[in-house]
Amino acid sequence: MRQVWDPKSYSRNAAFVPSYGTDLLSMLSPSKGRALLDLGCGDGVLTAKLLILGWSVTGIDSSEEQVRAAIERGVNAIVMDGQKLRFSDSFDCVISNAALHWMRKPEMVLRGVWNALRRGGVFLGEMGGYGNVQTVVQAANEILSSKGFDPGAQNPWYFPKTQDYSLLLKAQGFLIDDIYTFKRPTELPGDILDWLAIFMQSFASPIKKEDRAVFYNEIKERVKGELFAPQGKWVVDYVRLRFKAHRSKE
Q1: What secondary structure letter does DSSP report for 117?
Q2: Disulfide-capable partner of 55 in 36, 82, 117, 120 (CB 3.0 to 4.6 Å)?
Q3: Across the chain, what does the average pLDDT equal?
């Protein structure tokens, strides 16, 4: 099942993604004219902020819908699979926020980033880390298993441990400046059903289309005890892996 991104729904129910990404930008210095690749630019909200910092920005995303939204924001964005980057010695920096965990072939991603960077170039990223949204994943797995489906085959995500991603970076040749994992409980703007409809499409793929709303409601009921806060808000158990690495200047 192809993950479908509706820019309007994403903006309404997942605006926290680029909002949290602003903190990642604080690790960058303003730059006039230096070339930057935003790997997984989404609807371009965060990418547009990079333009304000003076970077010459190219955004890529696998979603045609999101790329169109990014272009409407004035971003130079193109449709491209992050696991099949087609750049060589083109950028001074590659940045990625909340996108790398959707790419199940990290070695291919890192090879493409390495090739895209110039010598001395920086790779800065934040992604889902080990244990990210585990409560929801576990609930979905249990429900799918009870229906006779293989839950592992439906999971679209790659949430690595810090040490495992460090090894991959080093194997590609990157020098690591910083890498760490941290918990970031994330308050949703509305009902968790809206979040599930955006991010859990792959898990719902073996379910008949007319039964998917029931599937999402089953997940909601299972996680309510852990994720529905006393103040009446849904708070999902996000875990993030953040890193900064670079290519040697030599």
Answers
A1: E
A2: 36
A3: 92
